[in-house]
Amino acid sequence: MSGTGSTLLPSPSIAVTAIEAGGNHSLALKSDRSVWAWGDNVTGQLGDGTNVSRSFPVKVSGLTAVVDISAGGHHSLALRSDGSVAAWGDNQLGQLGDGTNTSRNTPTQIIGLASVRAVSAGGNHNLALVGDGSVWAWGNNAAGQLGDGTNITRNLPVKASGLIP
């Protein structure tokens, strides 16, 4: 075995604190607040800077201080301790929330969100609960799943309607 393969495996002394299953990929959040991913990577949903599928966990590039994770159909989300959110993977329907439809194989900052307390990834859309209790959504909206009263797909977060009196 070459020495390079062993550096990709997570340290057994750092416990996994959360797991998520996506369409054909998986995520693990470790106690050191790093994120690890494995499985299908055709759209970069493993976040390791490649589009190579992996049958073993690899560390997601450039993420620190992660407190929550969520895996979508072909994309992934990470919530950081400062309330910001990063996304990576498929972006054909704006599910990375960066204002583009360009897929990314490393994490990118979601634009327009702050003080996020929780995230949830759907097949091709996402939700974020922010500190004031409002819910924001982005990505595919063909069935109205963003809750903004339209069926317009969004590549930036929009506020869901009617949840706050």
Mean pLDDT rating: 93
Total strand count, please?
Answer: 12
Distance, first to last CA: 60 Å
Order of helices and strands: HEEEEEEEEEEEE
Instruction: Give the overall form.
Output: globular
Low-confidence stretches: 1-7
Radius of gyration, whole Å: 16 Å
Helical segment count:
1
Class from secondary-structure proportions:
mainly beta
User: Sheet with the most strands?
Assistant: 4 strands, antiparallel
* Estimated share of beta-strand residues: 35-45%
Q: Give the fraction of residues assigned to helices.
A: under 10%
Strand order of the largest sheet: 1-2-3-4
Structure explained in plain terms:
- By secondary structure, the protein is mainly beta.
- 2% of the residues lie in helices and 42% in strands.
Q: What labels describe this entry?
A:
single chain; 165 residues; mainly beta; 4-stranded antiparallel sheet; 12 strands; disordered N terminus
Structure in a nutshell:
This protein is mainly beta. It contains 1 helix and 12 strands.
